[in-house]
From TrEMBL:
Reactions mediated catalytically: an aldehyde + NAD(+) + H2O = a carboxylate + NADH + 2 H(+)
Keyword Oxidoreductase: yes
Protein name (Swiss-Prot/TrEMBL): aldehyde dehydrogenase (NAD(+))
All copies of domain Aldehyde dehydrogenase, residue ranges: 13-470
Similarity comment text for this entry: Belongs to the aldehyde dehydrogenase family.
Keyword RNA-binding on entry: no
Enzyme class: oxidoreductase
SUPFAM superfamilies to which the protein is assigned, alphabetical: ALDH-like
Length: 472
């Protein structure tokens, strides 16, 4: 049981303004595993004022000084990697064998790479005519993060913002906040200067909106649903803040007629079901040639039935629970909508895969899906794959792009050059070709309603900088 009685503000654990708490539930057994304060706008104000005070000195610190603190955090995260993997498996339901790589391994990598970016980036000046052009930290950054990759998403924002010379106020998801609080403990243990990193927990409409609206916050970096992202953008516009938004997705996976169907479908199922389907870049729309629809469906159903659903702490588990009872109902409602609208259910469905507690959904595959169906239009965030037929390469690209989202995609072909040419036509921020692996150094973000700006690597680091021209 991890109980946090205060927020992390100005380098200390600070008593909240009220006594309300939010319980954290293990989605695998529905037991309470922790609690956090339900913050208030007053808590946010204290945190932002602390970050604003700390900004002057932190922004003027040398890149080497900032990098040294980031390396200390990197080392501490590395030392606690197994604890973090187990913790996130408990608060999110990520199978532990995935959690080691995604939920603890990526944050360890990100803080180490952020230290390299701090010391390796050329802040200027660059001479352009009679101007010195320099890059400077944007200021106090408000970071609002989701529950599906809680520490990874925190790290992408916090590590790079600190490396750039910004100070941070973080509002983690109230559904899975415990790994963020562990990061605050680490920041305290390595002696990070007071006010440089602050954490205020609570609900989005209260704490999140107060953070976005605060006049001393220079930038907001938000990851979450497109609906919530619109609200963040609207609030930030009132004080003309810089905004980075990483939002929803409904990513297409085009399997061309010359592809190795067994390999392509197997990989596609895996990339749909990653983190139990609770992934914004999940390849949830599989597009296959119409004359191979039946074969693709048989492969997908066979692969899906082979996935082991169960306790995320079990090393053999491949699909854990949905993160909450709310998410469980949402996914089941989408499955019911798919059936009602005429899609063919090949395996899975709305019924629980086994008796007992926990928010579990059976791995589900639909075929004969058309792109106007609800399950093809809306982000489900669960282990639900939709297989759509197409009659030509042109139609496949048109279906892939017929979505308000543009976060990710994939293309499979026996001809790599053909696959890359089709990938260039997909309106999305990242596209895998023939099973290409995730690259944590690549810019992460989307087109259209999937967001604004990029995270990770050098381009993610540059989001936290402003550009100044000094004429002479």
């Amino acid at each position: 049981m991890r109980t946090y009685a205060g927020h992390f503000i100005d380098g200390t654990w600070t008593q909240p303004r009220n006594a309300d708490v939010i319980e954290v539930v293990n989605p695998a057994d529905e037991r309470v595993i922790g609690s956090i304060p339900a913050g208030t706008p007053e808590d946010v104000d204290r945190a932002v004022r602390a970050a604003a005070r700390a900004f002057e000195e932190w922004s003027r610190a040398t890149p080497e000084v900032r990098a040294d603190y980031l390396r200390r955090i990197h080392q501490a995260l590395e030392e606690r990697a197994e604890d973090i993997a187990r913790l996130v498996a408990s608060e999110v339901g990520t199978p532990v064998q995935e959690s080691r790589v995604l939920q603890s391994g990526l944050p360890v990598f990100t803080f180490g790479h952020a230290a390299e970016l701090a010391t390796g980036f050329d802040f200027g000046p660059e001479e352009i005519g009679n101007s010195h052009v320099v890059r400077e930290p944007v200021g106090v950054v408000g970071c609002i993060t989701p529950w599906n990759f809680p520490l990874h998403q925190v790290s992408l924002k916090v590590a790079l913002a600190l490396a750039a010379g910004c100070t941070v106020v973080l509002k983690p998801s109230e559904v899975a906040p415990l790994s963020a609080m562990l990061l605050a403990e680490i920041a305290e243990s390595v002696g990070l200067p007071a006010g440089v990193f602050n954490v205020v927990t609570g609900y989005g409409p209260v704490v999140g909106e107060a953070l976005v609206a605060h006049p001393d916050v220079a930038m907001v970096s938000f990851t979450g649903s497109t609906r919530a992202g619109r609200r963040v953008a609207a609030l930030a516009a009132e004080t003309v803040k810089k905004v980075a938004l990483e939002l929803g997705g409904k990513s297409p996976n085009i399997i061309l007629d010359d592809a190795d169907l067994e390999a392509a479908v197997t990989d596609g199922v895996a990339k749909c079901y990653l983190n139990s389907g609770q992934t914004c870049i999940a390849l949830t729309r599989m597009l296959v040639p119409r004359d191979r629809l039946g074969e693709a469906g048989r492969i997908a159903a066979r692969v899906a039935r082979g996935y082991r659903v169960g306790d995320p702490q079990d090393e053999e588990t491949q699909i854990g629970p949905m993160v909450s009872d709310v998410q469980l109902k949402r996914v089941r409602d989408y499955i019911a909508a798919g059936i009602a609208e005429g899609a063919t259910l090949l395996t899975g469905g709305p019924d629980a895969p086994h008796e007992g507690p926990g928010y579990f959904v059976a791995p589900t595959v639909f075929s004969d899906v058309t792109n106007d169906m609800t399950i093809a239009r809306e982000e489900i965030f669960g282990p639900v794959l939709s297989i759509l037929p197409y009659d030509s390469e042109e139609e496949a690209v048109a279906i892939a792009n017929d979505t308000p989202y543009g976060l990710a995609g994939a293309v499979w072909s026996g001809d790599p050059e053909r696959a890359r040419a089709v990938a260039r036509r997909i309106r999305a921020g990242m596209v895998d070709v023939n099973g290409g692996a995730f690259n944590p150094l690549a810019p992460f973000g989307g087109y259209k309603q999937s967001g604004v700006g990029r995270e990770a690597g050098r381009l993610g680091f540059e989001e936290f900088l402003e550009t100044k021209a000094i004429q002479h």
